[in-house]
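Here is the promised in-class demo. Please do not try to memorize the tokens; focus on the logic of going from shape to residues.
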């Protein structure tokens, strides 16, 4: 039964799934792809006969015709079927089926692990607390001890091949390049097999690979878990492999205990004879460090015993809590969440990211800004209005009726000046006279020309004084008009000016 009804698959994908399903047969019903490897693709499937979920690992068609890869794949299946450990992924079945296309269709049926790889856990959390890292190392070393007891070498220990279940159980997987120690080597002379970031020095040089190579790779994994970085990095796999051969790993920080740093240091020794001999010695050393003691030296009397099987601890429970099952069916059309880079982990709890903080007071600030702008606008308008006065104190504009600072406009006044015929000395201008009041009164329009019996008196361009008659027009009176403006005084006696002042309108003689 195929996923023909799954909306996430296109018709081409459905046809490919149906073709693979026909080759596999009716014992295992494919569901969806849960992983990809260098040699194979892994599907989640249902074991119809045993009513359980399984992982079906299918060798890629481009490798099935390669005799070396096919032998390696068969060797993986034969070796994995003999392994029985809670810390190693179980293998249930292995089959080879002729492909109508002319290839050999090979697949392995394995235990389905609901959890995530150690690589995903490190990528999400940055690094692990020391207690959690030691728990992972002890369980992984115990799984390697079972593999090494059977005369097998994994050859590709790395975080991607270490799975963690929801119960905190560590399981080693992917025997794609494992081989029996007594079998004929599957690699050509000088050919490096493994992942460069975790490869042992002897493996990088193409020398004989033993169980100590797996110990070195597991030491690199421990270094990365504790420090959040790999001991060596470079621009290419070749430069990284050369660093594993010639360089000493950088010292880890003092946040890691001295006994744990010593444990990792022994695992990363360049000489294979000075490392822990196999997974059993590594498990014993990790167990000793977890008890608060220094790790025993390799091949010493303290190593002449069987390592106890790791029992669930508080660290194991926490390890299960921080694990996210990533092998479940992904959501349709949902992008994966961003992965934080190297979050600090102190007590094993998953990092908490605070919700975005809401900014408060935005409305009040906006209201104050608007209020300030309104006040500045009113002041500017007032200054603009008052700044348009001419030198004679009379403006040529009528204020707008909607001005918020000026009083309501009054009817336009007609100014009439009355001149007496009595000649008197010129008195001092009294404060608050009609001329001064005219300057500070509300804005008016220029008065009409004044008609006399003889001729019109020319205006005097003095901003501080009112119109003053000369000696020639004394005794003449203007025709009054109705007064309509408060602030304009009618019948005020005009001061008498000298004859010399009649031609000088800029100065006044008292």
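The designed amino acids, position by position:
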């Amino acid at each position: 039964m195929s996923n023909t009804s799954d909306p996430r698959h296109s018709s081409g994908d459905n046809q490919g799934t149906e073709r693979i399903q026909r080759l596999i047969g009716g014992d295992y019903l494919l569901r969806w792809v849960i992983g990809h490897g260098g040699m194979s693709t892994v599907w989640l499937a249902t074991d119809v006969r045993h009513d359980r979920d399984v992982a079906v690992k299918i060798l890629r068609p481009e490798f099935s015709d390669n005799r070396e890869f096919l032998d390696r794949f068969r060797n993986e299946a034969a070796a994995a079927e003999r392994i029985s450990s809670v810390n190693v992924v179980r293998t249930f079945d292995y089959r080879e089926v002729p492909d109508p296309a002319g290839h050999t269709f090979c697949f392995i049926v394995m235990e389905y692990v609901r959890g995530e790889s150690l690589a995903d856990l490190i990528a999400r959390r940055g690094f692990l607390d020391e207690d959690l890292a030691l728990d992972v190392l002890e369980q992984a070393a115990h799984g390697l001890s079972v593999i090494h007891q059977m005369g097998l070498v994994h050859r590709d220990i790395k975080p991607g091949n270490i799975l963690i279940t929801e119960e905190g159980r560590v399981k080693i997987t992917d025997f794609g390049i494992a081989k029996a120690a007594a079998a004929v080597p599957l690699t050509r002379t000088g050919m490096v097999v493994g992942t460069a970031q975790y490869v042992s020095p002897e493996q990088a040089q193409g020398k004989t690979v033993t169980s100590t190579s797996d110990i070195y790779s597991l030491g690199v994994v421990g270094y990365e878990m504790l420090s959040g970085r790999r001991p060596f990095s470079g621009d290419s796999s070749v430069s990284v492999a050369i660093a594993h051969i010639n360089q000493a790993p950088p010292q880890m920080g003092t946040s890691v205990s001295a006994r744990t740093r010593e444990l990792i240091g022994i695992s990363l020794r360049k000489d294979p004879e000075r490392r822990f001999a196999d997974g059993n010695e590594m498990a014993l050393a990790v167990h000793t460090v977890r008890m608060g003691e220094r790790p025993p030296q390799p091949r010493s009397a303290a190593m002449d015993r069987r390592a106890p099987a790791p029992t669930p601890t508080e660290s194991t429970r926490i390890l299960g809590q921080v694990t996210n099952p990533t092998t479940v069916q992904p959501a349709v059309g949902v992008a994966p969440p961003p992965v934080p880079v190297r979050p600090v982990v102190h007590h094993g709890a998953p990092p908490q990211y605070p919700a975005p903080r809401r900014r408060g007071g935005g409305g009040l600030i906006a209201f104050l800004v608007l209020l300030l702008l309104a006040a500045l606008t009113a002041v500017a308008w007032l200054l603009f209005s008052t700044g348009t006065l001419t030198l004679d104190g009379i403006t040529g504009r009528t204020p707008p009726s909607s001005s918020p600072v000026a009083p309501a406009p009054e009817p336009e006044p007609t100014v009439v000046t009355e001149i007496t015929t009595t000649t008197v000395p010129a008195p001092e201008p009294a404060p608050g006279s009609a001329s001064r009041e005219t300057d500070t009164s509300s804005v008016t329009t220029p008065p009409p020309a004044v008609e006399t019996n003889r001729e019109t008196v020319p205006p005097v361009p003095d901003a501080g004084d009112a119109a003053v008659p000369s000696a020639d027009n004394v005794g003449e009176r203007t025709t009054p008009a109705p007064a309509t403006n408060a602030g304009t005084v009618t019948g005020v006696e005009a001061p008498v000016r000298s004859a010399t002042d009649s031609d000088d309108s800029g100065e006044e003689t008292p």
